[in-house]
Design goal:
rod-shaped
C-alpha cells in the first residue's frame, strides 16, 4: 500500500498580513489614547488653575465686603463714610440713597494671574448692618461699554 502524500505547505502570506494589520491598528489606537490623555490632563490643569484663581478673587471680594460693611456701620457722617468707601482703589463707585439709608458700592476684584479677568460686584449696605449683593459676576476685558461677561463653555 502506498501512502499518499499530502501537500502540507502552510501559506504564511495571508496570516502575516492580517497580523501586521492588527498590530498597526493597536498601535494607532494606543497613540490616539495617549494623545487624548495628554489633552485631558492639559484641560484639567487649566481648569484647576482657573477655579483656584476664581476662588482667590472671591475670597478677596468677601474680605473687601466685610471691610466696607464695617465702614458703613461705623460712626461718622454720610460724606465721611462715602469718602472711606472710595479710598480703596478697587471701589469704582460708592453712593448713598437717602430714601432708604442704603449705600450702593460697585467694585472689581482683579485676578492675580490674568490681567483682563476679575469679579465685578454691586453691593447694597445698610447703616443698621447687613448687606445685599445686587450683582456678582465674573468679567473679562473692561472696555468703554462696560465689561464682557464670561459665560461657561
Amino acid at each position: 500500500m502506498r501512502v499518499s502524500e499530502k501537500n502540507t505547505n502552510v501559506g504564511l502570506g495571508l496570516p502575516s498580513v492580517f497580523l501586521i494589520a492588527v498590530v498597526l491598528a493597536m498601535v494607532t489606537f494606543a497613540l490616539l489614547a495617549l494623545r487624548s490623555a495628554q489633552a485631558e490632563k492639559k484641560l484639567a490643569d487649566k481648569t484647576g488653575e482657573s477655579v483656584g484663581d476664581y476662588y482667590a478673587m472671591e475670597s478677596r471680594a468677601e474680605e473687601l465686603i466685610a471691610r466696607l460693611e464695617e465702614t458703613v456701620v461705623s460712626g461718622g457722617t454720610t460724606a465721611e463714610k462715602l469718602e472711606k468707601l472710595r479710598v480703596d482703589n478697587r471701589v469704582e463707585e460708592a453712593e448713598y440713597t437717602s430714601d432708604e439709608g442704603i449705600y450702593v458700592v460697585r467694585f472689581k476684584i482683579a485676578s492675580d494671574k490674568k490681567e483682563d479677568m476679575g469679579i465685578y460686584a454691586k453691593v447694597f449696605f445698610s447703616e443698621k448692618g447687613g448687606y445685599d449683593i445686587g450683582e456678582w459676576k465674573m468679567v473679562k476685558e473692561e472696555h468703554e461699554k462696560g465689561y464682557d461677561i464670561i459665560l461657561p463653555d
